[in-house]
C-alpha cells in the first residue's frame, strides 16, 4: 500500500525524469558529437576512440540538465604531453566555441545545439586501479553502473540528485564537498532504491562504510566510505565533508517525519538592507570583520581548498590571540572574495600576561629572567605558583590590527592566495560591511539566519 512517502517520491519522479523530447534532443546531439569527434580524430591522424560517459550516458540525468561528456580515449601508455595536445586539438575541432578548462589535465568545454559539452582526453587503462587521473576511471564507472541500474533505480538516482541539489549537497567538486553522481548511483544500488537509502541515512553513525563488491580494501579515515567497486583502493566519498553528511541526515529525517516535495529545500534569501545589517551586528554585540581581495584566476577545485586553509589559519590565530572567533564564512563572486570572521572579543586589554618556565628548570628560568629583567615596558618578572611571569603591553589589541598587519602572513595561507593578498586587500568592520551588500547581500542574509 502506498503511503505519503511513496506519493511524494512518485511526484518527484515525474518532475525529474526527462521528457521524450528532451531525450530525443540529447541523443541526437550525442550522435552528432560522436560523429564530429571521430571525424576530428581521423583528420588529425590521432589514434583514439570516442566514448559518451556521465549521467546522460547512464540515463541518470535530470530533466532540464544540458550537460554532455564526450571522452577521447588514447591508447594505454600515451604520455601526458601527447594526451593533452591531442585532446585539446580534437576538442577545438569539435566545438566551435570551445575553450580550455583545467582539472587534473586540460580539456575543452563549449556548447553544441544548446548543450554544455566537455571533450575530455583520457587513457584507456586496462583496469581502473591503474588510472593515472580520475577521468581514466570514468569508463569503468559507466560500465559498472550501466550494467546494474534498471529503470526504477535510475528514477531513484534522479530523485536523490534532485533532493540533494536543493540543499546544496550535490556535487563532488571541492567547493561543494557533497555527494557526487557516481556516489549516489552506488548508494542507490547498495540500498535498492531511494526510500531504503533515506531510511538508513537517518540512523547513520559516522564513520559509515559500504563495500559493494566485498573488496579487502584499505582503510579510509573519512566520515563516509564507499569503496569504488572498480578500484578497491579508492573511496568514492572521499571528498564528502562531515557537514554535508550531517546536512543530508537532517533533511532525510525531516522528510520521513513529514513527507513533502519541498522538505529538501533551502529558503530563498532576500539581500539585507543597510539598516538590517547594522541592526544584526548591533544585536550580536561582537565584531564582524571581513578580509576582501581580488579573486585569482583559479578553477574552483584549486581555489576552495586554498580558501578553507586560509580561513582556518586566520581564524585559529585570532582565537590564539584571545579574540574568540564565533563563526567564519567565505563569500565569493566572479571577481571578489571575502573572508568573514565574527569575534566575540572586539578589543583586548592594553596589558597581556606572559608566563615563563617553572623555576625548577634552572637554565630556561634564568634565561627568561635575564631576558625581561629591567625592561621598561614590562611589569615583573614576578613569581606566581612555581614559575616566573611578566606583564607587557600588547602589540595587537584588535582583530582589525591583526588583519592589517604583516603578522597575517605568519599564519597558514594557501600558497596560491598568498601572492594575491600580498598585492593588496581591504579590511572592513561592522557598519563598513555595507560596502559588501551589493555583491554579497544574500550571503550575508544567510549568515545572520543560519539553518541546517
Descriptors for this entry?
452 residues, alpha+beta, Beta Polymerase, domain 2, Poly(a)-polymerase, middle domain, Alpha-Beta Plaits, five-stranded mixed beta sheet, four-stranded antiparallel beta sheet, 15 helices, 15 strands, 41% helix, 21% strand
Q: Could you explain the architecture of this structure?
A:
This protein has four domains: 4-146, Beta Polymerase, domain 2 (2-Layer Sandwich), CATH 3.30.460.10; 151-257, Poly(a)-polymerase, middle domain (Orthogonal Bundle); 274-347 and 397-448, Alpha-Beta Plaits, CATH 3.30.70.590; 351-393, Alpha-Beta Plaits (2-Layer Sandwich), CATH 3.30.70. 31% of the residues are buried. The strands form four sheets. Strands 1-2-5-4-3 form a five-stranded mixed sheet, with helices on both faces. Strands 10-11-9-15 form a four-stranded antiparallel sheet, with helices on both faces. It has helices at 4-16, 20-44, 55-58, 80-94, 134-146, 151-166, 181-191, 194-201, 242-257, 274-284, 300-320, 362-372, 399-403, 418-422, 437-448, and strands at residues 49-53, 67-74, 99-102, 106-112, 115-123, 208-211, 224-228, 231-235, 287-294, 325-332, 336-343, 351-358, 378-384, 387-393, 426-429. The two termini are 33 Å apart. Helix content is 41%, strand content 21%. The mean pLDDT is 95.
